[in-house]
Amino acid sequence: MPAWIRSPLRALRQRLSPRAPADAAVDADIQRFFADKARQQGYTLSDGQQRVIAAMAQQAARLPAGRPCSLYLHGQVGRGKSWLLDGFYNALGDLPKRRLHFHDFFARLHQGMFEHRREADALDVTLDHLLGDCRVLCFDEFHVHDIGDAMLLTRLYKALFARDIFLLVTSNYPPRGLLPNPLYHQRFEPVIRLIEERMQVLEVGGEQDYRALPDAGRQQRFTQGHYLWPGTAEQLQHLGFATPAADVVLEVNQRQLRARVRDERSVVFDFASICEQATAVIDYLELIQRFEHWTIEGLPDLEDCTIAAQQRFINLVDVLYDRDKPLLLIGERPLAQSLGGSVADLARTRSRLGQLQQIGPHT
């Protein structure tokens, strides 16, 4: 579009420049942005989504004057939380901002605090490096199951609010549903109170599971991947995955992981080697930088695995989905029979893996 044509998005960016006063027109621009986005993708906005968009628009109008109220969005999987977050992020144009999957941010936070552990305030120095002049921070898929992470979260939220950073957070859980383990939940109450006092909490409801729509993953590389069972040589040959893979030992954050590589950008892991060993999100993030195409073989019934292995698999799928990496997942049985288990976040994993193209012995 020629520069002299004043598009709605360009006008929105101009209104949201740091020097601009609060402008009620930004409200209309944000709502129009989402209406156009939904129409282009063939979506009908639910009442819950429309309430969230109205709240986003209201807070966006307050951003230039530094008076917005942060937002916490929660709801079942597939209700459009990430779609809303991404739309809001893109609509803000050139405003200093960061959009991060919570796994990614928290792994880098831990790493930075270790590197700056000799500083008087390692958290503050780490946030300087991670966020710079960021004014809007979007966290997708916020959840917490580890008490160590929970204790750090109180400090993190206080530090972010002290910096006047606008937070937009999505989660499958309402604040009171975070860290449900009764052994630890009471110790997480300070974070819950902080969220409820400093953020507007909104549920993204509706009957439609948008991930179940036929065209939901049309532009995602992850959803162009496959779930294959039982993974015979003939099936692999048919899909073009019969290229021999060489055994390697990968050095990852002072760990050694056994894998196979088809080429310098394609890696094959056994489920046992990547999920039953003491791997972590920071390892997956490093491996994502090295390899574009992923194969995970030998998926068992998760219900037979330890809670730790289930959680690692959930985290790995989250990272692959967020970074939009194509995945070939090979199991012993149909996908629906392989994703049992007791970890709460498996609902999200089932929804994401359900978007893969499934191929069985008679397909």
UniProtKB/TrEMBL annotation:
Q: Which domain of life is it from?
A: Bacteria
**What's the short name of a Pfam family annotated to this entry?**
AFG1_ATPase
Instruction: Give the matching Gene3D superfamilies.
Output: P-loop containing nucleotide triphosphate hydrolases (3.40.50.300)
What GO biological process terms does the UniProt entry carry, in alphabetical order? Answer: cell division
Which keywords, in A-to-Z order, does the entry hold?
ATP-binding, Cell cycle, Cell division, Nucleotide-binding
Tell whether ATP-binding is among the UniProt keywords.
yes
Classification via PANTHER family: AFG1-LIKE ATPASE, ATPASE N2B
Its name, as the record gives it, is Cell division protein ZapE
Which species?
Pseudomonas ulcerans
Underlying gene = zapE
